Amino acid sequence: MTYNFCINDFEGPLDLLLHLIRSSKMSIEDINVTSITSQYLDFINSSKEMSVDIASEYLVMAAELIHLKSRILLNKKEIDEEDQEYELNNEEDLKNKLLEYEKVKEITSSFKQLEDKRSEFYTKLPSDLQEYRNNDNVVCGECSVDDLVNAFALFLERQKFNKPLNTKITKKELSVSERTHQIRSILKKKGKCEFTSLFDVVSKPYVVVTFLSVLEMAKNNELVITQDKNFGSIMLEMK
Q1: Could you tell me if residue 145 is inside a domain?
Q2: DSSP label of 183
Q3: Are 166 and 92 contained in the same domain?
Q4: For the segment 102-151, what is each residue's pLDDT rounded down to a tens digit?
Q5: Is residue 125 in a domain?
Q6: Same domain for 17 and 51?
Q7: How far is CA 148 from CA 154, 167, 218, in A?
Q8: HSE-up (13 A, CA, CB side) for residue 8
Q9: Can you tell me the distance from the alpha carbon of 144 to that of 161, in angstroms, rounded to the nearest whole number?
Q10: Is 158 domain-assigned?
Q11: How many CA atoms are closer than 13 Å to the CA of 5, on its beta-carbon side?
């Protein structure tokens, strides 16, 4: 049987040591090297079917622990040439190695959580929308009476969904000449205005007179009527 102690995709001797320390309810800062070494060797002895590649890692750590245990038992403080071949020459070396490894495990755990969250999002590459673009524009200054009629019809259609802005009842009749004079004054003051903005009062007589006045002024060549694009705003200005 092959024993694999795997935590957050890390496996090997250090994972085993951490497992043994936690199982013995020890602290990394207060490791009983003798006890941990014994448990570690028991694990090696019980894992006879462990593959050569995996066994080599565990055996190297076993040699390190036995070396460290012997130094502690002999109360050896100095490090000679023979000791320099080992990474663990005192308890502090073992603590630092385990603490460093534990930090790496915590970081990888955080990365794993971020990876799981990121897997919940899906992105789409930018698409070329040129084929859907309509570049056909109405030439400025070339609006016909038909364009005005269509704009007027669309305006009336939109007004069906709006409440009347003015409900005052008046008997005074507005003539085309009077409304034409008013539109001239508006255009002289503003310079340019949108066609539908002239219908500031929504009543049938007012709308009809305003529309007839604009047609009359267009017929008399008093207005410059422009439209930037299909179904765009129609602008009026005096010549």
Answers
A1: yes
A2: H
A3: no
A4: 888 888 878 888 888 888 887 777 877 777 776 655 445 566 777 777 88
A5: no
A6: yes
A7: 10, 26, 10
A8: 19
A9: 27
A10: yes
A11: 17
